[in-house]
Specification:
134 residues, alpha+beta, Thiol Ester Dehydrase, Chain A, elongated
Length: 134
């Protein structure tokens, strides 16, 4: 049974090949994600990772690790504060913010941090449901 304040953390990174695969899967071929020459002319200076690919880390964790297998990912609100880049390692922190035992739901903070300087890159909250957890 999960409770308010429960936390979980993981580290992740993506390769350019994974980003390119996501371009193919999603159909989002914005050159900002894969074309170094194009990205060099932008304020980001190099290709950035798709926001939806970053959010897929939340989905993986909530469905498989915390709260775990059988969870239903109901909702995600994310604010992308800074760009994330290929080859850099990031830390994701999850913290249970609320629990509704009647509806078998919880709200979980979803935050991504840069490992080197500890800056928050993505700030959000997710809603999940899992009958076995409450």
């Amino acid at each position: 049974m999960i409770k308010v304040g429960d936390c979980y953390e993981i580290e992740f990174s993506f390769t350019q090949d994974q980003v390119n695969d996501f371009c193919k899967i999603s159909g989002d071929f914005n050159p900002l994600h894969w074309d170094e020459a194009f990205a060099a002319k932008t304020p980001f200076k190099k290709p950035i990772i798709h926001g939806a690919l970053i959010a897929s880390v939340f989905s993986r964790v909530m469905g498989m690790e915390f709260p775990g297998s059988g969870s239903v990912y109901l909702k995600q609100i994310s604010e992308f504060k800074r760009p994330l880049y290929v080859g850099q390692t990031y830390q994701v922190k999850f913290e249970v913010a609320t629990v509704n035992n009647v509806k078998h739901t919880a709200e979980i903070k979803t935050q991504v941090f840069e490992m080197e300087r500890g800056k928050i890159m993505v700030d959000g909250i997710a809603s999940v449901m899992h009958a076995d957890l409450f």
